[in-house]
């Protein structure tokens, strides 16, 4: 896709994840998702709770449970296929070539092991280093992510660090082997805004300095607006719109994207500026096989949004340069970019 | 939206010098008090009838404790809460009960606050029966239908249980329950933070609509500054147990006066790439200090980019009126507003405070552990 930035680090092609528990009907959490990320690029995956963001990232990292889950499609990291790769291979790629930062840093750190030991373990496993070298590198890594007094902190346990510092420690571990791909799943959702600002700044710096490809998973449209180059909006397991962030926010085409933007109160909008909710909730989604999953909540919906009428599932199609769209009756704009705000146009 | 009530009118709620300190206990055989968490430490505020007061601040700054103390769900250590002219602390028995009816609470997690074994009908009729309201079985049934209608739920919801609803619908049930007793004041603690944005907007609009229809007064506690700006007439900003600034919502956002408010405001991401690119962010050094051992003088001085050599470290600033309706507790508010004083960068502040660059240091480890012994520092999710 974005060849300007060099060969993609990550290529996800028609990825599907189905959960099948005994005696329950299978749920398709991720349904034919395709996207790619170039070096130094930040790609956002956004959408509301349950749309499949985390499952997508776990599938890429090979971290889904092996039982009761069916994964289809292809995930290539620097050209290497990961779907179906052995667990040993995945383990060595994780840490060395790809790493993930989760929402809850406490649960991703071992509570009974000193921070320093946890960081040096990663280094010793993946890099050819002596213990002394690993210890020195650990200090450098903690310093790099802005943890003050790193020598002291390395001797501490996770519970002795604040939430912001734990997240930094996790980012330090993720960076230990200079991975080509970093996936951050809601890395700041559990943090206060002033700490969130520090962490986002750190991630931005890292992408610029190291050329790491970053996949940023978030439900916060503000975070997307400030950080991501390209954005994929997900609904009910599928990507429904893809665009450069400027275009997405100025002229969302999918009614769901437009609806999201019209729902969020903005800090820079005065008291009483109306917000327009989307009716219903994500639980109202219908299966994609029957029609557009968003149809029950969509103001633009017409009969042909249902498969029964149109005869086919709504496809994701090119929608002008660099954009893709899954919608039969998208939001329209007067002509070319006109400074129309998303809020005004979405009405 | 809400008509600004005239200043002369007696506010519905007035809080004066309110403090809530939690003892930190230690010891195996005997509980020994080894310190206090100063969760709320001398708050003054008043809320005009029919208006919305928004309370913001970072995790652990004391917002929920303040809300709970107003409802006397938490016994204040000092200070008074005057509701509709009456000191709540002086009430006992029936008068306290009826006062409680007039103040209701809406919680963040609707599922956690609704009894999973009760269906909606029983959830809504219970408070009515308990207070002998609604006028018999028939009256109650009618009243409940009215409530469901008011919060936009179908009457089919009556026979269903909380887990059968989506998050937004559950919050509607929580709101219906809170307004069932026709309260005057609704304290909503993070009413929308557990909800998806599209649903959050539904609940915010519902709260506004109910306020207009029923003449309710709101205290809305939230960490999301955009939500608070959207819904509030007046906003109070808390830091480590105290109010550092209070102002009409639009004024506060257009010209924040306290250094903490400025930093907080600049940190909130705006869903607009053009705005995001042009914004200047005031990054703060370090984390929130422990409320068990707050900094001396101005509590914000360990992170403040405007901190001065004099006064900041050893003199507690009082909340004072800088302009009509605009309260701020900073010694240097005028000089900062007029641009006479310039901020330092987070790195400079960190260096000055003796921590290394881009610090995120929490307070000294001993105090950290002290607080943890009582209550894990709360993280937001
Ligand atoms: N282990 C599992 N077993 C069965 N279903 C699962 C499992 N993990 C996730 N799901 C389902 O897959 C869907 C997608 O979940 P996912 O965690 O990816 O959502 P998300 O977009 O990350 O949401 P959130 O914003 O809440 O984190 C959901 O419907 C969820 O219930
Ligand atoms: N019952 C209690 N006993 C001891 N300490 C408490 C108790 N309740 C709250 N605290 C402490 O008081 C301080 C204020 O807590 P409070 O819950 O009021 O903060 P908050 O502003 O509502 O935070 P959040 O945004 O995370 O909900 C915190 O340090 C908390 O750990
Ligand atoms: S395909 Fe139809 S229902 Fe789906 S978003 Fe577009 S207009 Fe709405
Ligand atoms: S009193 Fe001093 S430290 Fe406190 S906010 Fe004002 S300038 Fe900053
Ligand atoms: Mg998730
Ligand atoms: Mg709280």
Automatic annotation (TrEMBL), chain A:
The keyword Nucleotide-binding applies. Pfam families: ABC_tran, oligo_HPY. It comes from the Bacteria. The keyword Membrane applies. It is found in: Cell membrane. Belongs to the ABC transporter superfamily. This is ABC transporter ATP-binding protein. It comes from Blastococcus saxobsidens.
UniProtKB/TrEMBL annotation, chain B:
InterPro entries: AAA+_ATPase, ABC_transp_ATP-bind, ABC_transporter-like_ATP-bd, ABC_transporter-like_CS, Oligopep_ABC_C, P-loop_NTPase. Gene3D superfamilies: P-loop containing nucleotide triphosphate hydrolases (3.40.50.300). CDD domains: ABC_NikE_OppD_transporters. Residues 24-265 form the ABC transporter domain. Keywords: ATP-binding, Nucleotide-binding, Transport. GO terms for biological process: peptide transport; transmembrane transport. The keyword Mitochondrion does not apply. Pfam families: ABC_tran (PF00005), oligo_HPY (PF08352). GO terms for molecular function: ATP binding; ATP hydrolysis activity. Belongs to the ABC transporter superfamily. NCBIfam families: oligo_HPY. This is ATP-binding cassette domain-containing protein. The lineage of its organism: Bacteria, Bacillati, Actinomycetota, Actinomycetes, Geodermatophilales.
